Amino acid sequence: MKKNIAVLPGDGIGPEIIAEAVKVLDKIADKYGHEFEYNYVDIGGCSIDKYGVPITNEGMEICKSSDSVLLGAVGGPKWDNCPPEIRAEKALLAVRKELNLFANLRPTKLFKYLASSSPLKEEVIGGGIDLLIVRELTGGVYFGAKKTENIDGQLVATDIMPYSESEIERIGRVAFETAMKRNKKLTSVDKANVLETSRLWRKTMHRLSNEYPEVEYSDALVDSTAMQLIKNPSQFDVIVTENMFGDILSDEASMLTGSIGMMPSASLSSGTRGMYEPIHGSAPDIAGLNIANPLGTILSAAMMLRYSFDMAEEAEAIERAVDKVLDEGYRTGDIMQENCKKVTCSEMGTLVANKL
Ligand code: NAD
Predict the structure, then answer these.
(1) Exactly one of 80, 223, 285, 327 is catalytic; which is it?
(2) What angle do CA 200, 203, 206 make, to 5 degrees?
């Protein structure tokens, strides 16, 4: 299969971790007879430095005409004081909007060899952690009308949280389909006891659940879910929720594993094109030192193969290779443990590629 990938290394450790993901993709292409063409695009601070904008129109066109987008990370202190309209993060929002990426998928998996990195006690994570949060990404309170006005001599701020039935149905379908590909268990998270948008959310999810009788469906309130993620994370398979709840819960869930450098993510549209990136930022404190953990980016590339290119076997091969490398005791500095072998970012990429 021939695929055209827009590669956006970005800032900080972005270029280092992306190089390792490309190394692994090249090995996959070789082994399975695919052809991956990479089109590199500057994004974030490096683009501001070169062109005065966080992504150029040409760069955006390359993303829009690609089969998928692979991103490192953007931003850093050097660009923190740029005017709001050209901030590095603006480019990410622009790509999400242009590609209509409305579904954010964030798996949280505790690799058994890294159990001691989790802030949770061993008896709590006994059943392992392997859950996936599907977050609605383009609606809700972050995108609703907002204002601050003076009423009776004091400032009053309002943020509106709109959701249409079709927006809920669209993300609901992604969640049910994702659950069908995993352990067929879906928890829909809302605040239906107080929010009107949540009541519509719940009603729409219930209607959809009739179409997926194989999926074990349940509702949960967001406050209770925040507690359950800490108390008994093994109970979850797929969680679906609206934008703001998903923002908060997915960050909470990612901390359960204690290793931010390991976590991949995918942002999907209704077609097959998506944007894939590790959940961490550009880590300016370790940029250029070849010590970053590239596994989150490598696992993001695996998600790209699974969700955008329908290459489940190849995706599993990468995930197994990562597992084997960890099993053999290789660690980058951020996940280093006693009696393990410390490797650099590029050595880690090579180790994974060689296991394929
Ligand atoms: P960060 O995720 O970049 O770093 C937090 C800590 O985790 C740092 O100590 C860093 O060294 C470490 N870390 C992160 N990724 C690592 C990896 N792969 N290997 C080893 N250690 C790793 O978060 P931050 O410091 O809050 O943000 C730095 C910059 O990144 C900011 O400009 C922020 O706006 C930006 N950011 C970008 C994205 C994105 O591109 N999607 C996301 C979050 C933050």
Answers:
(1) 223
(2) 145
Q: Cα dist. 247→104, 141, 251, 301 in Å? A: 10, 12, 7, 22
The domain 119-135+162-257 belongs to what CATH superfamily? Response regulator (3.40.50.2300)
Work out which ligand 1 atom sits closest to the CA atom of 284: 28
Residue for token pair 């934008």: 243
d(CA 82, CA 84): 6
Residue 163, pLDDT score: 98
Q: Whose CA is nearest to atom 38 of ligand 1?
A: 281
Each residue's pLDDT tens digit, 236-263: 999 999 999 999 999 899 889 878 899 9
Task: Please count the CA atoms within 13 angstroms of the CA of 108 that sit on its side-chain side.
Answer: 30
Considering the chain, what percentage of its residues have pLDDT values greater than 70? 100
Dihedral Cα 280, 96, 222, 129, nearest 10 deg:
-40
Report the alpha-carbon distance of residue 223 to residue 71 in Å, rounded.
32
Candidate CATH numbers 1.10.340.30, 3.90.1570.10, 3.40.190.10, 3.40.718.10; the one for domain 1-102+264-356: 3.40.718.10
pLDDT, tens only, 1-14: 999 999 999 999 99
* Mean pLDDT over each residue of the chain, to the nearest integer: 95
Nearest ligand 1 atom to the CA of 73 is 40
Residue 295 Cα: closest atom of ligand 1: 18
CA distance 111 to 129: 8
Is the shortest distance between the CB of 190 and ligand 1 below 6 Å?
Answer: no
Q: Is the CB of residue 68 below 6 angstroms from any atom belonging to ligand 1? A: no
Give, for ligand 1, the residue of 11, 255, 280 to mutate: max count of ligand atoms closer than 8 Å to Cβ. 280
Bin 296: left if φ > 0, else alpha if -120 < ψ < 50, else beta: alpha
Amino acid at 192: A
Please tell me the distance from the alpha carbon of residue 237 to that of residue 240, in angstroms, as a whole number: 10
Amino acid identity at 3: K
Between CA 218 and CA 195 the distance in angstroms is 18
Domain locations in the chain?
A: 1-102+264-356, 119-135+162-257
